[in-house]
Amino acid sequence: MLPELMRRIEAADALSFDVFDTLFVRPLADPEDLFDLIGERFGIAQFRRLRQQAQTRAFERMKAEGRREITLDDIYACFDPVSVPAATLRDAEYALELELTLPNPRLMPVFKAWVGKKPVVVTSDMYLPRAFFDDLLKRHGVEPHAVFVSSERNATKRDSGELFDIVKDELGIPAPRILHIGDNRVSDVERAQEKGLAAYHYTDPLAAGVRKEPSTSGSIASALLRSVDNAPEPGSFTELGYRYGGPAAVGFLDWIVREAKTDRIDRILFVSRDGHILDRLARELPALPEGTLPPFSYFKGSRVAFTLAATDERNFDAQMQFFLSGAYGLRPIELLERIGVTPPSDAVMDGLGLGENFVIGEDNLARVADFLSASRAEILQVCRRNRRGLFSYLLAAGVKPGERIAMIDVGWNGTTQDALSEVLAQLLDVELFGYYLCLSDTEDCQRRQKRLNMKALLSTATLGAERLKAVYTNRVAIELFFSAPHDAVIGYALEPDGQVTVVEDAGRIVVSEHASVSQEIAAGIQQFSRDFRALCARISVTPDPLGTAMPIASFAANIEPEALRLLASVENFDAWASTRNERVGLASYLLG
């Protein structure tokens, strides 16, 4: 796009830039979401509807009086009386528009590069007064040759293009030598060409990824990327993290702050790997209206590590289903490797008929179960090691008997909390809560919710059954947003000096790119968090956690082809299910 635009600019004698969605952008999925922000600020629930009705009446009066454009004053002169004076609401809209109208990082450098070299003007259809444009341009250091605003000139681009006649007359340059650049195909292209001007249809490459959300927080979160100067590289994992992982993580963290206060939580454990980015964001967390977090730490743990620590002679047979979960397609020794047990030699396995050519399937699962039973002593030795190590690790994290502990997990059915609860019953007397980004509505999850303290930001109650189903179906993609640049944790080892070594599993096929992908995504999430919180503070908005996180649900419901191709480059993401027999791409888990 830009090379063609530059060629057209160089050939022109004068340039005209549209303002909204061209030279400037708003970090809102829908420009009228600004009305909702005003309504929230003043406690006027129906403000958006009232504001729309007032604008309609203003247009009716305009036509009756034979004028061609309305003004902001015209709109508020037609506003139905409410508890707040119309002038106060008008001034609030003016001020908020000024805060939210931000330079387009992709076009503003082009604009400034040509100022002084040839006449460069701004041309806008807008009810806001000329003073608004003067304030806006001054604020951002923009000095055009002239400003043409429909509310001041009583002429528009959109209807008959009279505003372009004024541009031609005042510039004194032949119309074909003037290039107008704008985003609206009718008012910026067709009308300009009808008046003899050259026209360039500008399309913002970042606008396509903006999805309308049903809340102001979601609107800002979805559209914020359009307005940032240092936007991540398009099509990168960093951009993916910014667009979707960032809103999910920030909304989730804000929700955790609120719930921890309600539940009087003493300590928070951001359980790996899901909690890695949340722990990083929490260390940058400003004081929120709901308060701040209680003491917290990044706690390296997992369903595997906790289940093994909870396993002993008493319940070994009952854990066989866990040992065999996800076994189809794997080799028998891989079932031992993924729980930290050193398997027998290849010669021994070949002698047992369970060597590298033996692939686990439904027809031989009973034989594999017998093999695990025969490995009982070795497995239980690892379980005892894990139990001792976990106890010391909990103490090192500051966990004390009698505390109310919240473990943080992305989701989905509470299996990790169930395992931690079981082992804590043997180690420490604490009250455990589970805070989740999302909980499914499966029968397993519902059963656990009846006996465990489990809460989720996203659930059937907040998403509805269909959207929750989409999130759960594509959960592996969401897990990638919350991954960490280290391998999956499968246990603990208490060293002679009392220190605890965390045991990790790289999977059967080591893929070195996992760490770099996680780091890129985390960088995008952190950048979003800083940008989002800075904007919300500047416009005095208290984000709604659920609204902020909603872009992740929209993403899961419709993963765009470009994002799907990027996700397809990630292989063997799930260490538990990885095998030397096959390289599994992350996209195979998705229904994009």
What would you note in describing this structure?
- It is a single chain.
- By secondary structure, the protein is α/β, with parallel strands linked by helices.
- It folds into three domains: 2-209, Rossmann fold (3-Layer(aba) Sandwich), CATH 3.40.50; 216-299 and 383-589, no CATH class; 305-381, no CATH class.
- It is built from 27 helices and 14 strands.
- Strand 10, helix 20 (415-427) and strand 11 form a beta-alpha-beta unit.
- It is elongated and about 95 Å long.
- The two termini are 28 Å apart.
Q: State the distance separating the first and last CA atoms.
A: 28 Å
Q: Overall pLDDT, averaged? A: 94
Helix amount, in percent?
40-55%
Low-pLDDT ranges: none
Task: Outline the fold blueprint.
Blueprint: H1 2-11, E1 14-17, E2 24-25, H2 33-42, H3 47-64, H4 72-77, H5 86-100, E3 102-103, H6 108-114, E4 120-124, H7 130-139, E5 146-149, H8 150-153, H9 162-171, E6 178-182, H10 185-194, E7 198-201, H11 216-223, H12 237-262, E8 267-271, H13 276-282, E9 296-299, H14 303-310, H15 320-324, H16 332-337, H17 346-351, H18 365-374, H19 376-396, E10 404-409, H20 415-427, E11 431-438, H21 443-451, E12 453-458, H22 460-463, H23 465-473, H24 475-481, E13 488-494, E14 500-505, H25 513-538, H26 545-557, H27 561-568
Parallel strand pairs: 1-4, 1-6, 4-5, 6-7, 8-9, 8-10, 10-11, 11-12
Antiparallel strand pairs: 2-3, 13-14
Helix pairs in contact: 11-12, 11-26, 12-13, 12-25, 12-26, 14-19, 14-20, 23-26
